[in-house]
Amino acid sequence: MTNPAFYPIGTPGQAWNAADKAEWLARQKRQRSYASDVLAAVDGLRSRFDVAEYGRLEYASGSFPLFAIKSRDWNDTLPTMLVTGGVHGYETSGVHGALRFVDRHASDYVGRANLLIAPCVSPWAYEHILRWNPDAIDPNRSFRENSPAQESAALMRLVAPLRDRIAMHIDLHETTDTDESEFRPALAARDGKPFEPGVIPDGFYLVGDTENPQPEFQRAIIAAVEQVTHIAPADAKGEIIGSPVVAPGIINYPLEQLGLCPSITNAPYKTTTEVYPDSPRATPEQCNAAQVAAVRAAIDFVLEDR
């Protein structure tokens, strides 16, 4: 007996073939503008920061330049802080939180730290409000050698010269209701696996590195963010999205094993933020502010710990 279909593309129990992926791609619609929302904001920062094009994505639907924002007063004797957003393009506050941090707070660190910010790693996915790129690949499982994702490979090339010199990397994400209604079912269908429903946590949480968890660093970020928005509680199993809660609002993943973005450097301090924009207790403004609070707290902790 075959499993009933839980996603409109593919055959239950069989991984997608090229035709299935093409069908998935044909269903996707452009819903917002990378140029208007992101590139225009980046252009507005050029008078105060250095902006560099670190790559360009070439897809059938268009070409997308990738930009990084850097401290103008770069000093190799200072610690370097890496901020990434929009690895998953649909996670809006990751992109706009990164840009807001640069606009409102990056100047606070002049002479104290070098800042490198890649605010929108996946611009095609940003425009289509998707987790994957057009090849049905999740960039945030693709940060590894010979990456199949253009987005991941470009960011890795940008960071490679600094891999051993970055002190902190914070990667800005969201967990949304569509994770459960669309993206996890699509993932299961793509891989020919059964879909097992989960629970979306209501609130902000962090994902640290199982191999180097840095609990005090993670707790400092939670303390700052809880002044802005609520922190996700553990579920009845003491977990958040299937992982044990090691402190309020904090879980750990094996970052390198999973090919996650914070694994691209040897920074001693790494974390992934997860904002919940669909909560009735949160607004888009709070989501952006939570990302900014997390970035500031992360940088401040590292500077104070030196």
UniProtKB/TrEMBL annotation:
Gene3D superfamilies: Zn peptidases (3.40.630.10). The keyword Zinc applies. Keywords: Hydrolase, Metal-binding, Zinc. It comes from the Bacteria. Belongs to the peptidase M14 family. Its cofactor is Zn(2+). This is Peptidase. GO terms for biological process: proteolysis. Residues 30-306 form the Peptidase M14 domain. One of its GO terms (molecular function) is hydrolase activity, acting on ester bonds. It comes from Luteimonas gilva. CDD domains: M14_REP34-like.
